[in-house]
Amino acid sequence: MQGGLAMGLDLFGSMMKEEWRLHSTMFGSLSFALFPVLIFGIVFMSSFLLPLFRAVLPAGDLALIITGVFLLLGVMVGGFGLLGNEVMNRRFGQMSLLAYSARSLPLSERYIFTNFVLKDIVYYLILWVLPFVLGFAVASPFIGVPPGYPLLLFASLTLTFLFGLSAIFFLSTVYSRSKSALAIIFAAVLVIAGWAYLSYGTGLADLFPPLQLLHNGAWPALIESCVLVAIPFAVSIALFTPEYTGTSKRFSNLLTPLTGKLSFFPYPPLAAKDLVDLWRSGGGVGQVIFSFLLPLGLIWFFMSVLRALVPDYAVLLVFAVIAGIISATMYTWITSFDTFCSYACLPVSVSTLITSKICTFTVLQVIPAVFMVVVTVITGGILYLIPAMALWCAFSFYSLSVSIYLTGLTPNVLVYDVKVLLAFMVLVGVPVIIIIALAFINPYFGIAALLLGIPAVGLVRKGYKRWEGKDMASF
Amino acid sequence: MGMVMVIESQGLTKQFGDTMAVDNVTLSVPQGSLFGLLGPNGSGKTTMIKMLTGQIRPTNGQMTVLGINVLNDPIGVRKSVGIIPEQETPPSFLTAMEYLAFVGAVRKIPDIDEKAAWWFRFLEFEDKRDVLCKDLSRGTRQKLMFAQAFLHKPVLALIDEPLINFDPIMQRKVKEYLAEYVKSGGTIFISTHILEIAEEICTGFAILHKGKLLYSGAISELAGKKQHLSEFFFSQVQDD
Question: B36 - beta bridge partners?
Answer without folding.
Answer: B190, B205
